[in-house]
Specification:
This protein is α+β, with helices and mostly antiparallel strands. It is built from 8 helices and 8 strands. The protein has helices spanning about 5-10, 15-25, 80-85, 110-115, 120-145, 150-160, 170-175, 180-195; strands spanning about 30, 35-40, 45-55, 55-60, 65-75, 80, 95, 100-105. InterPro entries: cNMP-bd_dom, cNMP-bd_dom_sf, RmlC-like_jellyroll. This is Crp/Fnr family transcriptional regulator. It comes from Chitinophaga varians.
């Protein structure tokens, strides 16, 4: 049950046997059903999650009332609204489960215990934040600099396993186009591959 999260942390820092046991004790197992919310707009994010099994989407609602998906999370990903989690501010976005999911959750207080109680805990926090920062900057840069076709190609590169797991209107929302435009992009790309 905790092996995946231990492995994910060990990809960033080393853990000895006692530290693995301690880290596992800080994460609580929780199951969510498809369409359940982990976090709704206006709520404060109280935990960081790790996906053992399942799929989530991050989205915000624009001024026209349309949902704009800006990220996905799947197996072996950590998930959270980090700005809300860190400063306890109301979230401006939503995190929703797209499949029945099994996750491990760690509270803000227990995450601070992890940082302070294991040998490389502070280093883990710093490196994890650096990864989040790079990921966020790349997403922002893509929104401003990439065409919808380039964003679709990036979606295919970053999430090759999601094409069969999510509806196409979620893909189009992520790319930033309406479903008919995504269909045209896919047709153009398919016709180029023929030659």
């Amino acid at each position: 049950m905790h092996q995946q999260v231990i492995y994910a942390i060990e990809n960033i820092i080393p853990l000895d046997a006692a530290e693995k046991e301690f880290v596992a004790s800080l994460f609580q197992l929780k199951r969510y059903n498809r369409e359940d919310y982990f976090l709704r707009e206006g709520q404060v994010c109280r935990a960081v999650g790790f996906i053992n099994h399942g799929l989530i989407r991050y989205y915000a609602t624009n001024t026209n009332g349309e949902e704009q998906i800006y990220d996905f999370g799947r197996e072996n990903d950590f998930f959270c609204n980090y700005s809300s989690f860190l400063d306890h501010s109301p979230s401006a976005s939503n995190i929703q489960f797209m499949e029945d999911s099994e996750v491990l959750l760690i509270s803000h207080e227990d995450l601070q215990r992890l940082y302070s109680s294991i040998k490389h805990g502070e280093r883990f926090g710093r490196l994890a934040c650096e990864q989040l920062y790079v990921h966020a900057i790349k997403k922002i840069a893509s929104l401003y600099a990439d065409s919808p076709e380039q964003r679709y190609l990036r979606f295919q590169e970053d999430y090759p396993d999601l094409q069969q797991r999510i509806p196409q209107y979620y893909v189009s929302s992520f790319v930033g186009v309406k479903p008919p435009s995504l269909s045209r992009i896919r047709k153009r790309m398919a016709s180029r591959q023929i030659y």
